[in-house]
Each structure stands twice: as C-alpha cells, then as structure tokens.
Amino acid sequence: MLESLNFHFSFYDWLLIFMVTALGTLSAYLKDPQLKAVTATIPIPCGFAYIAVGLPMGTANAISGFMCLLYVHIVRILHYKVKVPIVPSIVAGLAFFVALGTFLMPRIPEGEVYFIAVCVFDFVVGVILFQKQSYKSGTRYKTPLPVYIKAPAIAGVVAGLMLIKRLMGGFCTSFPMMNSIVSYESRFSLGDQCRQLPLFLIAGPFMFAEMRYIEIFLHLNHWIVLLCGYVLFAAIYWPLNKELKRRNEAACTKYSHAENLPVK
Questions:
Q1: Of the ranges 166-175, 182-191, 217-226, which one carries the lowest mean pLDDT score?
Q2: Shortest CA distance to 164 belongs to which of 2, 1, 7?
Q3: Strand ranges (DSSP E) for 93-219?
Q4: Candidate from 27-31, 71-75, 179-183, 260-264 with smallest mean pLDDT
C-alpha cells in the first residue's frame, strides 16, 4: 500500500532530498538574487533525480527543462501581475508542471529524432531569450529565520514534493523542486530566476545528449555518466553565467546614471 502511494523512499530518494534541502537552505541565506537563481539551475538535483529514477536521459528530460522555464514565469506573473500570494503562485506553477507532465508522458514519442529535435528547440529558445530579455539588478534579501528552523522546513517541503516522483517518470529529473524553494526565497526578485533559466536551456541539452549517448554506446555506470554530464554543463554554463552577471551589472549602472541625469 505504501509503495503504491509513493511513500517508500529508496536510498537515492533520501540522497536527493538531502541535496535539494542543502541547496535550498543555501539559497535562503544568499543575499545576491542572481546567486539564489544559480542554485535553482545548477543540475545537482536534476542529476541525483536521474540516479534515483534510474531511467536513461530521453525526450521527456529535454522537454521538462522548457517546462521549468514556463513554471518560473507562471509564478512571476501570478505573484507580480495578478497579485496572488507567493505560496499559492508556487502551488499553481507546480500544478501546471504536474498536469502537463502527466498529460505528455504517455504521448511523447521516443527516438533519436524527437530527442534531438527537442534539444535543439531548448537551445534555440534559450539563446533567443538570453539575447532578447531585459536585464536589471534584483532585490537583495536573505531569510531572517535561523538555520535550525529553515532547514527542517525546507526538508519537509522537499519530502512532500518527492511523493509524486514516480508519477512524473522521466519528467522528474527537471521537476522544479529547487525552483519552488528558490521561488519562495526569491519572492522579491523573481525576475532574476526567470533570467537564469535560459542558461539551463542552453547548457542542459548538451548535458542530456552527452549523458544519453555515453550510456547507450559505452554502457558506463550512471555515476560516471552523471559526472561527465556535469563537466560539460559547467563548461558551458559558467561563462554564460559570468556574461549574465555582466549584463545585469551594466543595466544597473546604466539605470543609476539615468537617475542622476539633470531634468531639462
């Protein structure tokens, strides 16, 4: 009965809970809004979910990266534009991800053509958004709660999110567990979280493809496959993140100068 309700956690599930809780707690005490957003886009939870699920990287993984982008914009629009409180906004974003994931999961065709096509789609969308989106410095904020209260609270949230792991199948690897935590901790600077996701869309497809084909052709251990994916992701993501930081700082400087111009 417990197994059917997804209440049984394996060792890898507990490991995933620990990693997401640690990253979520770290994000809570970071003041820099971009660094908070970084914790939501580095693929440590994604990688450990890959290990926990035990499924090869496929089309669902690539699609779920784009779904994470939709999630953060849903939360931002609901909270900033519609004035919905942050917690219901996050719940609505997660509900959208789960509903869309469960709808698509049995309908996604497997095969190399579809996998590559979705990876290319993610990459193109990521590049376009990275080039076209507006840049500005977000609000600096960190939680006032002591860590012995914040960490258990985050762990409880993450454990609750893990209950739907098996329901999501391949979509679980990019299920917005970290994004949901960071959305709450970044509720005063959700724009930074939205600006960070295109970096994942650019670097993620290369990581997914490398992991898929290493596993298929070389039949390596999943941990080795994951390590190879992390190395490639970091090589692409790190310079992009530096450029994003530069653009945010340039936009902030330009805005500051404009504020100091004399009125004619």
A1: 166-175
A2: 7
A3: none
A4: 260-264
Q: What is the DSSP string of 49-96?
A: HHHHH-PPP-HHHHHHHHHHHHHHHHHHIIIIIS---HHHHHHHHHHH
In one-letter notation, the amino acid at residue 170 is G
Q: What percentage of the chain carries pLDDT values higher than 70?
A: 88
C-alpha–C-alpha distance, residues 113 and 226, integer Å: 23
What does the CA dihedral 248, 254, 260, 264 come to, rounded to 10 degrees? -140
SS3 219: coil
CA torsion sign, 169 to 48 to 27 to 62? negative
Sign of the CA dihedral with 10 first, then 221, 198, and 28 last: positive
Residue 94 has phi, psi (to 5 degrees) of: -65, -40
Residue pair 8/159 in contact by the 8 Å Cβ criterion = no
pTM of the entire structure? 0.88
Contacts of 47 (CB under 8 A, 6+ apart): 173, 226, 229, 230
Over residues 231-248, the mean pLDDT reads 94
pLDDT of residue 172: 64
- Give the type of residue at 87: V
239 pLDDT higher than 90: yes
Say how many CA atoms lie within 13 Å of 215 toward its Cβ.
21
Other Cβ atoms less than 10 A from the Cβ of 66: the count is 19
- State the residue for tokens 């699609």: 63
225's tokens: 């496959």
pLDDT in the model for residue 164: 63
